[in-house]
Amino acid sequence: MQISWAVPNVTKKDLQAVYRVLKSNWFSMGKEVKTFEKKMTSYLSIKHAIATNNGTSALDVSLKCIGISNGDEVIIPALTYIATGNAVLYNNAIPVFVDVDDTLNINPELIEEKITERTKAIINIDFGGNASNYRELQRISRRYNIHLIVDGAHSLGAEYHSVKCCTHGIVNTTSFHAAKILTTIEGGMVFTNSKEIYEKARAIRNQGETSKYYHTYLGNNYRMTDILAALGNSQLDRFEETLKQRRQRVVYYKEHLKNVDYPRELPGTVNSNFLFPILVENRDKLNRYLNKNGIETRITYPTPINEQPIFRKFSKETFPMAKQISRRIIALPLHTKLTREEQDYIIKIINKFGG
Q1: Domain spans of the chain, in order of start
Q2: Rounded to whole angstroms, how far apart are CA atoms 326 and 32?
Q3: Which of 173, 247, 258, 289 holds its CA 20 to 30 A away from the CA of 315?
């Protein structure tokens, strides 16, 4: 048996939506993108959305919109995907790393000791879709007058005390990469309640253009196409059902897996289950065993970001929790096409693993 780690949730209706755009002869950013942005603001109950060509460019736009520049310090979790840190470097800023806790998210208790007069922002992620402690993150943001940015690449569909994630920062982003719960194959989006940030983000996404061929800002070509937006519009119509199907599979895993640990979930939160991470001893041996038996996995992530070669010069610290998790974590297959038979096979292989 061969089991994929992720399979894009693309249906016949999605393909018909894409074909409709192809027949229209308007492929670039247009009415489908505008519709997608409007539908996402409605889903999240937020005022503004700006579609981009991927989640990394959405992060870059966000940092530019709040004025992050040369020498500014930006706090990020020590365990995150590389794009979180790369966006800081794109803006000539300095990443400052903070360890995570047993939710796999940034530890709010450790943030304040890292704040200096040069600190301008905190970038937070909701690891795997597990909502962070936004009450504390927002308190710190207000107390020190520093911006909270949410890198919501994992977050869409999660909630913190009945408020949807991707909304808790002054500016927020998400990704619609092929592995994501809602996919446009490649794509991203910026969310904000600030009209000023919205207007600046729209311009930066489109070469800094504020009126036709008049360029107020240094921007880039970060535009989403109507082809991709059509796919997003179709997928958003069934997004809640998609989340439900993934949760059912997570529940089944947890009812039957033995001798594994999971990240702690905070009270009052809803996990989007972008990832299904387990924490185990002898991780590398188990991972090889799973792969040998036809089960595709991901190690998310095998190296704390501060230990990546391009970030080593910014910190010589060791972050114990991030390091421990990076040695124990495996993300198991989770997608809507995952069958009960396949789950039973994965569970059987893990439960009989002798270490």
Answers
A1: 12-236, 239-351
A2: 40
A3: 173
**What is the CATH class of 239-351?**
alpha beta
CATH top-level class of 12-236: alpha beta
What are the backbone angles phi and psi of residue 45, rounded to the nearest 5°? 55, 50
Q: In the predicted model, what is the mean pLDDT of residues 120-137? A: 98
Q: Using the predicted structure, report yes or no on whether residue 354 has a pLDDT greater than 90.
A: no
pTM: 0.97
